[in-house]
Write a structure and sequence with these properties.
GO terms for molecular function: ribosomal large subunit binding. With about 130 residues, the chain is α/β, with parallel strands linked by helices. The protein contains four helices and six strands. Helix 1 packs antiparallel against helix 2. The chain starts with 17 loop residues before the first helix and ends with a strand.
Length: about 130
């Protein structure tokens, strides 16, 4: 008995442009009225991710809704997405591979101070632009 092997030739999916993914994330957060959106370019600085996004919502409900919408949009792009903390809505972490998003209520964001940890401006003075680490 002889088995025949046929190669399946399908085009490989094109990798997503990281800047397009960041644009999708920031557009989603802006649509959901997120406050103090900060994007940090980590390329060459961290092995964990290429971009870090930090944003605030005014309530647990808003933070959870922002996370839900963002999760849907990132999944729609075909990215592997993990979400932690969505049921509590105080701090939600969304890991989409090369981009990690932290969504906070303002007082929780202030308490943990991720901006300080990365040597960035505090949310009160942050500008919603891509900020490279120098």
């Amino acid at each position: 008995m002889t088995l025949e092997h046929k190669a399946i030739t399908a085009p490989l999916p094109q990798p997503l442009d990281p800047d397009q993914v960041v644009a999708t994330v920031t557009a989603s957060l802006e649509d959901d009225k997120a406050d103090d959106i900060l994007v940090v370019d980590l390329r060459g600085r961290s092995s964990v991710a290429d971009h870090l996004v930090i944003a605030s919502g005014r309530s647990q409900r808003q933070v959870a809704a922002m996370a839900d919408h963002l999760h849907f949009k990132l999944k729609h792009l075909g990215l592997p997405v993990s979400v932690e903390g969505q049921t509590q809505g105080d701090w939600v972490l969304i890991d989409a591979g090369d981009i990690v998003v932290h969504l906070f209520r303002p007082e929780v964001r202030s308490f943990y101070g991720l901006e300080r940890m990365w040597g960035l401006k505090t949310p009160e003075r942050a500008e919603p632009v891509i900020t490279p680490l120098d």
